[in-house]
Amino acid sequence: MRNGAEPRPTRERILDAAHELMLTVGLARATTKEIARAAGCSEAALYKHFAGKEELFIRVLAERLPPLTPLLHRLAAEPEQRPLEDNLTEIARQAALFYEQSFPIAASLYAETQLKRRHDAAMREIGSGPHRPIESLDAYLQAEQARGRVRADADTFAAASLLLGACAQRAFAYDATETGERPAVEEFAARLARTLAGGIGA
User: What is the C-alpha to C-alpha distance for residues 199 and 38, in angstroms, rounded to an integer?
Assistant: First the structure.
């Protein structure tokens, strides 16, 4: 603590430590014991704030990564604040950043079958999971459809899956290239939104 500054709340320190460990060693190896140690608290204190590692993972995604789900909920409630393509560009930008930052955290899940099953069961129990952004984007596109800005015959679920699938693909598809560089997020989002809006826009 410097210059009399207040110490960060325990919950915030735990989230910061969980985020850092999940990025550096992966979700599978980031134990609650290691997270508590890095946060400077006891494991018992960690469990006062979070039910377990699965809930910590969800809170890290929600509070330490680009806010994709709140954006989708806001746009579904007020879809006509901006043009359709502008909204899709912002969604694509946030989604690309979200997957870019969350993929290194979640990737280790797929290397351990039993851990993945336990994690999936925990996600179902708390009503979360990687399908939620698709459902939220589908709801937004349906709201646009109801207002006549998306074609009546457009498949909104397919459109949502295409946009978010492309953003997720960007997160890992370019590591094997000579430069290892992903497409710049701003241009990527604009091109993706323009193409999708051209296909489904009324």
Answer: 48
Cβ atoms within 10 Å of 5's Cβ, excluding its own:
7
Where would I find the H helices in 147-184? 156-172
Angle at 144 between CA 142 and CA 149, to 5 degrees: 130
Q: What is the CA radius of gyration of the chain?
A: 19
Say if CB 137 and CB 72 are below 8 A apart: yes
Q: pLDDT per position in the chain (202 positions), as tens?
A: 445 556 789 999 999 999 999 888 887 788 999 999 999 999 999 999 998 887 888 888 778 877 788 888 888 888 778 999 999 999 999 999 988 888 877 777 777 777 778 777 877 777 777 888 999 999 999 999 999 999 999 999 999 999 999 999 998 887 767 777 889 999 999 999 999 999 999 8
Q: List residues bridging with 201 in a β-sheet.
A: 150
Nearest to 20 by CA among 34, 2, 5, 41: 34
